[in-house]
Amino acid sequence: ECTRAQPFAKMAADDGRKAKEAQLRAAINQQLIESGEKERLKEALRQKLIESGWRDQLKAHCKEIVKARGLDQVTVEELVAEITPKGRELVSDSIKKELLKRIRATIAKQTAS
Predict the structure, then answer these.
(1) Secondary structure (3-state) at 2
(2) DSSP secondary structure letter of residue 6
(3) Cα(16)–Cα(12) distance, rounded to whole angstroms?
(4) Contact 31, 110 (CB under 8 A)
(5) pTM given for the model
(6) Whole-number Å distance between alpha carbons of 13 and 64
């Protein structure tokens, strides 16, 4: 039998899990920063995105938006808000997997030492 408290218990469990995930992400980020690996990863990602044509695709998308709305009718903030989902979508799975693999390897190396 389902009680009224069950949905609230699930919500509380979800909140606890989300909090733990946020703490873990923060700890990983801190490790990456302290080791200098975050900057190396960012540079490698930047290079991969340029090589894959991602930057050019996103630039073309920006131009389309500005052309459709008019230069005076779009702010930088609006443009960023509009292109961010498209930018994430355009990153290839292979680039995402490679980046995740490098992050995991860095964490494994740091926790082993």
Answers:
(1) coil
(2) H
(3) 6
(4) yes
(5) 0.70
(6) 44
Q: Is the dihedral of CA 85, 91, 93, 99 positive or negative?
A: negative
15 phi and psi, to 5 degrees? -60, -40
Q: Distance between CA 101 and CA 108 in Å, rounded?
A: 10
Query: Which pLDDT tens digit goes with each residue over 83-102?
Result: 999 999 999 999 999 999 99
Gap between the Cα atoms of 9 and 7, Å rounded: 5
Task: Give me the amino acid identity at 101.
Answer: K
Distance CA 70, CA 63 (A): 10
pLDDT digit string (tens) for 35-94? Answer: 899 999 999 999 999 999 999 999 999 999 999 999 899 999 999 999 999 999 999 999
